């Protein structure tokens, strides 16, 4: 009898694992919709790897069919903000495990050419509409809360600074959270809690220690909650700079730049009571190492060493993943590291990978066939290619809207180096931080960056290439 009971329990447990999958007890999410004006448009559903780097990762993708139908299916273990870049919009929603959503997309409005390559252009955030939603649905509640919250935030927050009208703020906070106190959704309650805490933080900036004590020190870290991470990034912004000015904190400079010691750094930060929680301390370290990498406070190589220590010493999986993600982000365009990879189509519709050029020096450039500066330099590159093609492969990534534009251009001007269209990996523009055309990079035979960015063909590149190859013993 006992054996039969054991077998039944085992079967139930196995069914439980099958139902939830092995991915952190994740459940299926379905997102679909009908948007005829987006017909034949590829749509990619994304999420952030974390809210410190904000590196994007693909969740699912689909191409809207001729009838305007699209559908995404994927698994989630926790409530997660997912989003799509649709022209001038960033359309987002909060996906809950096990739920299905039918979306109503905004009217299609593509980016202008000037907007596409403008590093300061910001897409308009749109909390995408869900068809046939229910009042208790998470997105409905967040959306209605935000509709009340942001007008107050924009209109009154500066009044709070000037008048210090704290009683008015308390009353507003109570009014804003009132309609949701009985809604049974932990994500929503935390979202509201930290959005309202942001108001208090802005009003009481000189008491940020109190904000830290109340909302972070003895609270669980809400890695996926947008409002939590938004406030976290504000409260602990430049924490190393401020704490480093104190007698207790000035040792962080030697902890990082000289000793490159995560253990010593934790001991130093532990003297500040706001970081007496080890989990909070570690994520504050991650944020500040990320933010300070391009500053002048610490050695870059030392920051990388401390980040690497977190990947091997941290007992928190989310922090290991975050450290690896930060390392990947800050090294992706550094000399000595591999650049972002790609697989793109050439003029003959052949898929070409960056890996195909391993063992060669590669002069990689981003251009537009409609850019006067690019077309002018193509003539110089052509002469350069004739002189150096035995030692160097030239690869041009064309960022024009249509693949056909590149094909027509090359029929008119049959240049003999590799041209690739960026169409199936448009995110490369962001990954390579392209802010102007043309932009150049030099890669070595090991596939790693040597010059990032590299000079143009009329800016002494030939001399630099000769010097590099001679120093490396390749000529």
DSSP, total strands: 16
Radius of gyration based on Cα positions: 26 Å
Structural class comes to: alpha/beta
Major beta-sheet overview: 5 strands, mixed
Outline:
globular
Strand order of the largest sheet: 14-13-12-15-16
**Beta-strand fraction estimate:** 15-25%
Fraction of residues in H or I helices:
40-55%
Through-space gap between termini? 80 Å
- Low-confidence parts, pLDDT < 50 over ≥5 residues? 9-23
Number of helices: 17
> Assembly type of the shown chains?
single chain
Mean pLDDT: 90
Tell me briefly what this model is.
The chain is of the alpha/beta class. The chain has helices at about 1-20, 115, 140-165, 165-175, 185-205, 210-215, 225-235, 240-245, 250-260, 260-270, 280-290, 300-315, 315-330, 370-390, 405-410, 430, 460-470; strands spanning about 25-35, 40-50, 55-65, 70-75, 80-85, 90-95, 100-105, 125, 130, 345, 350-355, 360-365, 390-400, 420, 440-445, 450-455.
Task: Give a verbal description of the structure.
It is a single chain. By secondary structure, this protein is α/β, with parallel strands linked by helices. Helix content is 43%, strand content 19%. The strands form 5 sheets. A 5-stranded mixed β-sheet has the order 14-13-12-15-16, covered by helices on one side. A hairpin with a 5-residue loop joins strand 15 and strand 16 (449-454). The protein is globular and about 75 Å long.
């Amino acid at each position: 009898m006992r054996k039969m009971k054991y077998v039944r329990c085992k079967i139930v447990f196995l069914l439980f694992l099958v139902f939830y999958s092995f991915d952190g007890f994740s459940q299926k999410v379905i997102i679909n919709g009908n948007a005829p004006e987006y017909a034949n448009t590829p749509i990619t559903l994304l999420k952030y790897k974390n809210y410190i780097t904000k590196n994007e990762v693909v969740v699912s993708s689909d191409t809207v069919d001729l009838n305007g139908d699209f559908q995404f299916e994927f698994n989630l273990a926790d409530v997660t903000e997912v989003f799509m870049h649709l022209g001038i919009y960033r359309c987002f929603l909060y996906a809950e495990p096990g739920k299905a959503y039918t979306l109503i997309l905004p009217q299609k409005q593509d980016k202008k050419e000037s907007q596409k390559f403008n590093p300061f252009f910001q897409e308009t955030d749109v909390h995408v509409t869900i068809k046939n939603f229910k009042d208790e649905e998470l997105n409905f509640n967040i959306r209605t809360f935000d509709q009340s919250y942001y007008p107050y935030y924009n209109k009154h927050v500066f009044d709070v600074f000037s008048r210090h009208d704290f009683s008015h703020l308390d009353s507003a906070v109570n009014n804003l959270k009132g309609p949701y106190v009985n809604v049974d959704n932990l994500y929503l309650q935390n979202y509201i809690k930290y959005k309202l805490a942001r108001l208090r933080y802005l009003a009481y900036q000189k008491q940020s220690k109190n904000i830290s004590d109340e909302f972070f020190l003895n609270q669980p870290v809400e890695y996926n909650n947008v409002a939590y991470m938004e406030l976290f990034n504000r409260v602990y912004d430049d924490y190393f700079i401020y704490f480093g000015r104190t007698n207790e904190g000035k040792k962080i400079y030697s902890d990082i730049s000289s000793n490159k010691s995560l253990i010593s750094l934790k001991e130093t930060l532990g003297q500040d009571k706001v970081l007496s929680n080890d989990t909070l301390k570690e994520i504050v370290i991650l944020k500040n190492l990320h933010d300070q990498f391009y500053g002048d406070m610490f050695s870059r190589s030392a920051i990388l060493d401390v980040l690497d220590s977190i990947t091997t010493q941290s007992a928190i999986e989310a922090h290991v993943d975050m450290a690896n993600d930060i390392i990947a982000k800050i090294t992706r365009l550094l000399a000595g590291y591999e650049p972002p990879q790609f697989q793109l189509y050439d003029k003959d519709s052949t898929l070409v990978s960056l890996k195909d050029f391993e063992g060669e020096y590669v002069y990689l450039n981003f251009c537009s066939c409609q850019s006067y500066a690019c077309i002018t330099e193509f003539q110089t590159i052509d002469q350069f290619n004739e002189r150096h093609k035995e030692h160097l492969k030239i690869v041009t990534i064309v960022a024009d809207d249509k693949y056909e534009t590149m094909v027509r251009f090359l029929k008119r001007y049959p240049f003999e180096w590799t041209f690739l269209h960026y169409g199936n990996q448009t995110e490369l523009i962001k990954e390579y931080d392209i802010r102007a055309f043309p932009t150049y990079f030099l890669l070595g035979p090991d596939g790693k960056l040597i010059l990032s960015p590299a000079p143009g063909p009329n800016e002494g590149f030939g001399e630099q290439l000769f010097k590099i190859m001679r120093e490396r013993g390749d000529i």
